[in-house]
Write a structure and sequence with these properties.
The complex is a heterodimer. Chain A is an alpha/beta fold. Chain A has a single domain (9-131), classed as Lumazine/riboflavin synthase (Rossmann fold, 3-Layer(aba) Sandwich). Chain A is 44% helix and 14% strand. Chain A has a 4-stranded parallel β-sheet, sandwiched between helices. Chain A is globular and about 45 Å long. By secondary structure, chain B is of the alpha/beta class. In chain B, a hairpin with a 4-residue loop joins strand 32 (611-614) and strand 33. In chain B, helix 1 runs parallel beside helix 5 (115-133). Chain B is globular. The N and C termini of chain B lie close together (12 Å). Classes of the chains: A alpha/beta, B alpha/beta.
Amino acid sequence: MTESFEPVIVGFLCNWCSYRAADLAGTARIHYAPNMRPIRVMCSGRVDPQFVLKALREGADGVMIAGCHPGECHYVNGNIKTLRRYHLLKRMLKQLGVEEERVQLVWASASEGKQLAEAVDRMTEQLRALGPLRWPERVLGEDGRGANGHEAFVSAIEPREEVAA
Amino acid sequence: MNHKPMEEARIGVYVCHCGTNIAKTVDVAEVARWVGEQENVVVARDYKFMCSSLGQDLIESDIKERGLTRIVVAACSPHMHEKTFRGACQRAGLNPYMFEMANIREHDSWATDDRAAATQKAKALVEGAVRRVAHHTPLEPLPVEINPNTLVVGGGIAGITTALELANAGYHVYLVEREPSIGGHMAQLDKTFPTLDCSACILTPKMVEVGQHPNITLLSYSEVEKVEGYIGNFTITVRKKARYINEELCTGCGICEEKCPKRVVDHVFEAGLGYRKVVYRPFPQAVPKYPVIDRENCTYFLRGKCRACQIFCPTKAIDFEQEDEIITFQVGNIVLATGYDLFDARRIPQYGYGRLANVFTSMEFERMVNAAGPTGGKIVLRDGVTEPKSVAIIHCVGSRDKNYHEYCSKVCCMYSLKFAHLVHERLPDAEVYNFYIDIRAPGKGYEEFYHRLLHEGTHFIRGRVAEVTDAARQPGEEGKLIVQVEDTLIGKQRRIPVDMVILSAGLEARHDSREVSQLFKMGCDFDGFFVERHPKLDPVATMTEGIFIAGCAQGPKDIPDTVAQGAAAAARVAGLIHLGTVMMEPVRAYIHEELCSGCRICNTLCPYNAIVFHEDRQVSEVITALCQGCGTCVAACPSGVISGAHFTNEQIMSQIEGVLWDVRRNGNGKQPTVNIQQSTANVQQPTVNEP
C-alpha cells in the first residue's frame, strides 16, 4: 500500500451550531474530505480536554472541536470556556511534541455548512502533510512508558480516564 | 442503581438505505453485515426506509420478540428523525433514551462520492453509536408547567398581531414597546403596496384594540432589562422609562403639546424631515394617548425654568419628579418582534445623501407623501416649496451589494413602484425614473402593480447607479442632480438630470439585535437577524424553547408576511399554553455530593447560575429546573463528579473508541479502557431519572 496517507480526525460538534452546519453541508451536497468522524455534544464547552487526549491516544491523527461563533453560543458563553481550555490544551500538547495543526478549534454557525466543510478539507490536507500521529511512539516512547522525560507527566494524565469511567 | 451490565446489552442496529440517498454512496448491506458481528449486537438489518411505518414496525417487533434493550438507527440526522425512532422504542416498551442515532446521510453519504471511504466512515459512526448506546440509561423527560402569560417584545405590526391573536384567544399578554407609541414603521407609511390601502387607516384600529384590550398590558416607552428562567417560567424585568406624565390623570387632550414653546427635529417618527415639540406624542393616533417629555431637550430639565406644560395642563398630570419604574412579571413564552432598521444611506457617499440637499431617503419620502406628514402630503424639494419636475428612484441602496448587504431586502422594489405611482398621482407632469437591477415582484397582485406602473409612464432603467452628482458636464445639467448609470439593456453609459433623488434603502437588522439576542439567550445570524429553528419548516420558533420570533427581526419581509408570522407565533404559543405542560429533554447535570470537594469551580462557570453552594455541607448542587444541560461544568469538574445525563463521560469515551475502531491500538496494550462491569455506575444517575 503506497497510497497517500489518509488521516482520521475526530470532530466534536456542538448540537446547535456546528452539528447543524455539518447537516447543512450534507443537505447542500457540499463534498468534503470523509476523514472527520463527528461526535455530537450539546455544547463545545462539554468537550473535556480528556476527550481530545483520549481520541489522540486511541489512534486519531487529529481532533477538531467546533462550536458556535463567540457571542452566538446557545448556552451564552460555553464556547468562550472552550476557547480558554483549548489554549491551555494546546500548550500542553506542544510540550508533548504534538504538532499544533492536530488539534483545531473551529467556529461554524448553523448556516455555515460550507465553512465547516472547508475547515475539514483544510485540516485533512494539513494532517496528510504531517503524516500519522503515532501517539504511543511519540508521546509514550518506544517502551510505552513515556519519552523525553515526560514519564511522570504522562503517567499523571494517563490513568484519568479510569477515574472518569 | 439500574445500570445494566454488559451481558444485558442486547443491541439492535438498523441501517437505512433512505431510498438511494444513503445506499448510493454507502454499502449499507456490508455495514449491517459487519456491525452484526460486533459485541453486544443481537440484530443488524438494512432496510429501504427506516422512518416508514414498516421500518418502525421492524424495530418494535424486534424489541418485543428478540428482547432488545438498546437500539441504534443509522440513517439521517437526529435533528430529523430522532423523535420518530424514540417513539418506536417507546411503543415497544423500551425507554426512548435507550436509543442512539448514527448520522450516515448528512454527515456521510451526502458529503462524498467515495464509496469505500463513505462505507468505512459509516462503520465508524455506527460503531460509535453502538458503543455509546451500551452505556445509555433510562431517562424520563422533565415536565414543565407553562405560565399562560406571554411577553411580546416590539409593538409594530408583527407584535400587534401576535398580541391580539393571543389576547383574543383569552390569554394575557405583556406588550413591551421601546418608543412612546406602538405602531412601528407601519405607522410612518402613507400607502401600502400594491393595494394602496392607507397604512394608518388599516393599522390604527388594531392599535386602538391593543390599547383597550383587557387581556393586554401595554408597556410603552419601556425596555426589557433582564430575562431569567426557561420555557414556561420566565421572569421578566422591564424598565418603564419616566414619561413625566401621570398616566392616571392625563386625558390625552394635547394642550401640553400645544403650549410647549420648544420644538426639535423629529429623527424617529418624521425621519428627520419634520419637527416635534419637546412634550410630544409621535403622531396624533398614538397608543397609548399619553405624551412623553423629552428630558434631553426640555427647558425645565436643562435650566429649571419654563413649566409651560405644567401650568396649562387642566388635570395637573405633568410630574417632573417621576422616575423610571422597574416592573417584574412572569411569563411562559416570549415572542420577539423587534423589527428592522432602515439602511443608513450616508454609508454610500457616492449617492450624496446628507451632502446633496435633494437626495432623500425612502422613509423621508414616505413621510413627505403622507397627508399627516411635515409637508401635508406635498412632494417638494428640500426648500419646502419647489415641486420637482423629474424624480429618480434608485433601487437596492445597501441591498444586493457585497459592500453592504448581500441579501435582497424584498420590499424595496415594491415600495419604489409605489413611490413612482404616488409621484404620477400628485405631480402628473413629472418624469419618474426607476433605476433597478431586477424588478422583484413576487406576491399577490405585485406583478400586476408593476405592469400598471409600466402603463403609467414610469421610465425603467436597468442598471446599478454609479453616482449621483451636482457637477454639470453637459448643457441641461446645470442646477440638477445627475444620475450616472450604465443602462445594461442598451449597453451604454447614461447621465440623467433630475430634480429629486429618492434612495430606496434596504432593511437591516436592528443596531442592537446582537445585545437583544444575548439578553434572550437565542441566536442571531451574521447580518444580525434572529435565527429561526428551521428556515423552511419552523420559521417562527428559535433554538431556545419558549422563545419565538416574528416579522422583520427574522429577516426582511413585507406586511402580509409579517402579519402571517405574527399570527403563526401566536398560534405556537397558544398551543403550548393550551397543553399546560411540556416535556423537556432530561439532559441535565448532576453533582454527586458525596464526592464533591467543594472547590466551587463549577459555580461561576454556569451561565444560568444553576449551581448553588451549600455552605453548611461545603458541596455544590445543580438546580435541575435551571440547568440547561450544556455540560460546561461536567467538563470542568476537577474531581470528575458532575455527570451530564445522556452525555456522560462514559458514553462519550465509548463513542470515541467506537468511531476509531479501525485505527485503535487497544489503549497501548492495556485492556480496553472502558468496561461497564467495572465502571463506577453510581456516578451516572441523576435523581430525575428515578421512575
